[in-house]
Amino acid sequence: MAQTSQNKKDLAQARTKTNFDVTDMTNYLYGGPANVEQRRYIIDLIAREPIFNKDDWPWLNHTDAVKRGIAMSTRLAEIKMEHELNDLDFATMVEAIDDTLPILLHNGAFIPVINSQGSDEQIEKWIPLAEKYQIIGCYAQTELGHGSNLSQLETTATFVQETDEWEINSTTFTAAKWWIGGLGAICTHAVVQAKLIIAGKDYGAHVFVVPIRSLDNHKPFPGIQVGDIGPKAYGGFNKMENGFARFNKYRIPRENMLMRFSKVSRDGVYTKPPHAKLSYGSMVLLRSVLIRQMALYLSRATTISTRYLTVRRQFNNPTKRNDTDINPGLETQVINYPMVQNRLFPMIAQSYALFAAGSVMMEMYIGLMTGLSSGNIDTLAEVHATSSALKSYCTTIAAAGAEECRKLMGGHGYSYFTGLAHMFASIVPSNTYEGDNYVLTQQMARYLLKEVKTARTTPNKVTPYSKYVLLALNRDSFAHARCSVAKAEDWLNPDVQLAVFEHRCARLATELSDAVDAAGGMESTTWSDHNIECYRISHAHAQYVMVLWFIQSIREARNPEADEECRASPEAIAILERLSNLHALHTIQTNLADFTEDAYFNPSQCQSLRAQVKSLVASIADQAVGLVDAFDHPDFLLASALGASDGDAYQRLWDKAQTEPLNRREVCDGYEEYIRPLLKKHGELKL
Ligand SMILES: Cc1cc2nc3c(=O)[nH]c(=O)nc-3n(C[C@H](O)[C@H](O)[C@H](O)COP(=O)(O)OP(=O)(O)OC[C@H]3O[C@@H](n4cnc5c(N)ncnc54)[C@H](O)[C@@H]3O)c2cc1C
């Protein structure tokens, strides 16, 4: 009991050290008090509904979990309609529920795809039905044999002119749609990617709205074999019925092909889209949403770790921040060890940077869609490439970060009751879906290769975030460029930091361009040989824009002329600047070879960089608990015995263990059957 109250005291004591207004910081993160209030209101709405209670989740098998997932899905839909909630509110409900539900792809992909690729008449027909959940949809692209390589999908949609229909066919065994969220049980319709064939000619993959199950009795229509693909890794996506489907010459009307961009007329004439990438809008949306989701995930993981490590005590080793002078009988709080701080605090900084990246990426998406609606495709390529690069980088660091947070918490970190195990299982596949994180980096690389060429021919046409390619135009001076840092404080100058990231991107892009040109160009058969460099430049670019956007968001928060919602107090700005410095410099330190291999950094700069990172990490220590409190994740959302807001970690962990069903019996099930026969094999024993 004494230990328990010490836990609470430790967290409360840590909070007293916070020297900025936590509410002010929360407002900065979520874009103003109105957004914060709305998020709290929505999370509370979910927390009050018994169907969303998380207590028995670890003991549900896949079959029971899917049924629960369906029940949760339908309640989610009802709440959305009852309260007339918008898409952002829906996303917050999903965040609060904290599990992937069968209905998620309905709002997350089915509706956005129809909205972005359907004609006005198609939107008018399908969207009202979908918004009232009179139909429930999913997004079926991936097949058993192909996912990344969209051009080789084997499902066909063949135009049957006599009846004005498409015949959807899984031409081979490997053409079966696979992994499709919502297809296994809940959906009535799917938007299906299939190769469009007219009079024997293949026009490539297009999107079709395909009825899957009867609206009367939910039975699959004849000609469709549909089911669930089974349990998934780490027990993740347990409530989601990712499904398969095979089509056997299944007919749908011609108007079920989504025809905003490409069209097929009654007499079978195909009109191609005015721009090959016009259909990318919905993909950009999904990737932009993912970036914000990663901010929420990593900030939750760091909240749990920071709070637990503040109350966890091990050894009596003195550290600079040891509080044993006040409490001589106590061991050291684990969070005081520099090694722990060095692992944890850069991830807090990364979480803040992810929030900024999520906001800017969403603004870019909205700008893109506004442009597209008036036929302006100027930003399409850049926004698409940026969202691909960031999706790959942000989901990579969030998954790695969640696992690091688990390790930071030692043995108890491996308990389900941390709230991290479930979260980790949910984050990990984000590295694969919406584009495999390695394959996806080729998008940004291809884009930058074009930018390098543009820089040489029409430099004024280089797009804003790749302007750095201009730095390398003069090969000779670029080869001799050196980092300007002369003394350790110079590292804290945001302009110096940005120059460093720009130099690295310019070099990697130019080197890749030279290598690709020497090997015969982007379309040559040797393109795959450059995959490793594509990954490198894509992640370098993502790191650059993340550093840039975090710096810009702080500048905005400091600007007295900016909107009130964007501004923050001087105390909050001061700590944000420290976080931004830590984020930028720690990212450089983690990738140091990239900055030294062309002698851009010299050895003494490397040393002063490390010293600066160490000092920044230490400077965060007193603010860590306040910084994670500012993420504003309530206990319901964290669902964590170790990371709850009162710090009562041991008591909560104890209480949770008592709920384990095994503990309902004094003698375990299996004693008579297995244990007793073994113990008695050699006769009765009296000791
Ligand atoms: C949880 C989950 C949910 C999903 N939900 C849906 C859904 O609702 N709808 C849907 O349509 N799909 C869904 N998917 C499928 C998902 O989008 C694909 O699995 C994903 O895009 C990866 O494609 P793939 O499976 O073909 O991987 P592959 O391309 O087969 O990748 C296998 C390996 O090969 C590597 N590789 C492949 N090509 C290259 C290359 N050119 N160069 C270098 N390396 C390469 C990859 O990096 C990877 O390591 C889901 C997947 C998961 C895991």
Automatic annotation (TrEMBL):
Q: Gene3D superfamilies per the record?
A: Acyl-CoA dehydrogenase/oxidase, N-terminal domain, Butyryl-CoA Dehydrogenase, subunit A, domain 2, Butyryl-CoA Dehydrogenase, subunit A, domain 3
Do you know which Pfam families this protein is assigned to?
Answer: ACOX, ACOX_C_alpha1, Acyl-CoA_dh_M, Acyl-CoA_ox_N
In this protein, which residues make up the domain named Acyl-CoA oxidase/dehydrogenase middle?
A: 138-232
- Principal subcellular localisation of the protein: other
PANTHER family given for it?
A: ELECTRON TRANSPORT OXIDOREDUCTASE (PTHR10909), PEROXISOMAL ACYL-COENZYME A OXIDASE 1 (PTHR10909:SF250)
What family does the database annotate? Belongs to the acyl-CoA oxidase family.
Name by which UniProt lists this protein:
Acyl-coenzyme A oxidase
